[in-house]
């Protein structure tokens, strides 16, 4: 049987409890592993004697390894290609920002340098991007462990491979680990992106208070949304908006709306007005995302710069909705939105199967 990650919090806690070992030692083990890469669990100091054979027989300090590290030409994006112990690949992307650049509300921005980690919650179980398998909570946390050894991570976004809310239990467990010792990330610096899994959104705030919710909306009406994302058929827009209204009422948090700009599909002025009317009663931040075409995988094309700016102007000026345009980072290393694990070494370009490809399989958020 494959050994589990020492960062699989639920599993290691259960094993410690069964063995009568104080679970307060678990965060100390994590701290040692984080600070001492390539060391064995036998070397963790000051544990009860019963802990060592248990750790040795059932856990590994890391079940994943970094297969490659690729830096973008501008040195602000780093792509980690991570190999899981079952041989599958996932990617995590480190994005570095200087929050002092530009202005906000006509005033200089506060802040400084920061790093955001985009991580995956599922992986491709076959040679296509369609069939997903869940990562364990430990495999999710290990992406942060690998990244922390390269950069000081302040923010984490679940916008990599997979639908986080379809791996709900592991994602919740991983985030609780990330916000505890020794990582101690602020919940307010973690964002979970979803296509709109209604039953999971309904319980997200109670399970993860203060964590940010981002919704991949991508269209202001249901038929266009289904054209872009076939998975949206299971989550009618009207029901989704009612769910978001309840979520915002309970959480008192703004919601981030992700909107991929697709030429001639959802980027016209009428679409901007439809979106504005849909969102005008919400506290939201709309993030307009230039689409990254991936070879022949997608029939969609990116909107031109003027269309994106006009769309932003309508949302801001007519509806008073805070609207940003996502800065494209890491396109030269296929680390931008929609390019994760498409260009694996020795991996054939995914062949067209005649099926409609969900844009969420091509663009993670």
From TrEMBL:
InterPro entries: Aldolase_TIM, Methyltransferase_A, rRNA_lsu_MTrfase_RlmN/Cfr, rSAM, rSAM_sf
Compartments, as annotated in UniProt: Cytoplasm
Domain Radical SAM core: 91-332
Molecular function, one GO term: 4 iron, 4 sulfur cluster binding
Keywords noted in UniProt: 4Fe-4S, Cytoplasm, Iron, Iron-sulfur, Metal-binding, Methyltransferase, S-adenosyl-L-methionine, Transferase
GO cellular component, one term: cytoplasm
SUPFAM superfamilies: Radical SAM enzymes
Gene Ontology biological process: methylation; rRNA processing
Coiled coil: none
Cofactor(s) the protein requires to work: [4Fe-4S] cluster
Gene3D superfamilies referenced in this protein's UniProt entry, alphabetically: Aldolase class I
Protein name as catalogued: Radical SAM core domain-containing protein
Organism: Nelumbo nucifera (Sacred lotus)
Organism lineage: Eukaryota, Viridiplantae, Streptophyta, Embryophyta, Tracheophyta
């Amino acid at each position: 049987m494959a050994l589990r990650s020492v960062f699989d919090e639920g599993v290691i806690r259960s094993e410690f409890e069964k063995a009568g070992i104080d679970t307060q030692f678990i965060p100390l083990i994590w701290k040692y592993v984080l600070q001492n890469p390539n060391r064995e669990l036998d070397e963790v100091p000051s544990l009860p004697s019963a802990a060592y054979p248990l750790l040795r027989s059932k856990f590994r300090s890391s079940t994943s390894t970094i297969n490659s590290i690729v830096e973008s030409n501008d040195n602000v994006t780093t792509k980690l290609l991570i190999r899981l112990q079952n041989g599958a690949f996932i990617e995590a992307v480190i994005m570095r920002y200087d929050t002092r650049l530009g202005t906000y509300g006509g005033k200089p921005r506060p802040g400084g340098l920061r790093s955001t980690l985009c991580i995956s919650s599922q992986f491709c179980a076959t040679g296509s991007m369609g069939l997903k398998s869940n990562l364990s909570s430990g495999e999710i946390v290990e992406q942060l462990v690998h990244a922390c050894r390269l950069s000081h991570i302040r923010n984490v976004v679940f916008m990599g491979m997979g639908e986080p809310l379809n791996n709900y239990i592991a994602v919740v467990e991983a985030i609780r680990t990330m916000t505890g010792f020794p990582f101690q990330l602020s919940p307010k610096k973690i964002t979970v992106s979803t296509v709109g899994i209604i039953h999971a959104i309904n319980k997200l705030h109670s399970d993860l208070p203060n964590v940010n919710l981002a919704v991949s909306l991508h269209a202001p009406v249901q038929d266009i949304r289904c054209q872009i994302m076939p998975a949206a058929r299971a989550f009618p827009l009207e029901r989704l908006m009612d769910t978001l209204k309840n979520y915002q009422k309970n959480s008192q948090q703004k919601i981030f709306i992700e909107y991929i700009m697709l030429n001639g599909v959802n980027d016209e002025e009428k679409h901007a007005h439809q979106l504005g009317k849909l969102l005008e009663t919400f506290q939201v931040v709309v993030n307009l995302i230039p689409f990254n075409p991936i070879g022949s995988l997608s029939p969609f094309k990116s909107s031109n710069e003027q269309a994106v700016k006009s769309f932003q102007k309508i949302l801001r000026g007519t509806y008073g909705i805070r609207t940003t345009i996502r800065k494209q980072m890491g396109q030269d290393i296929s680390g931008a939105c929609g390019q994760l694990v498409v260009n694996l070494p020795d991996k054939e370009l995914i062949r067209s199967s005649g099926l409609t490809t969900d844009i969420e399989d091509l663009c993670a958020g």
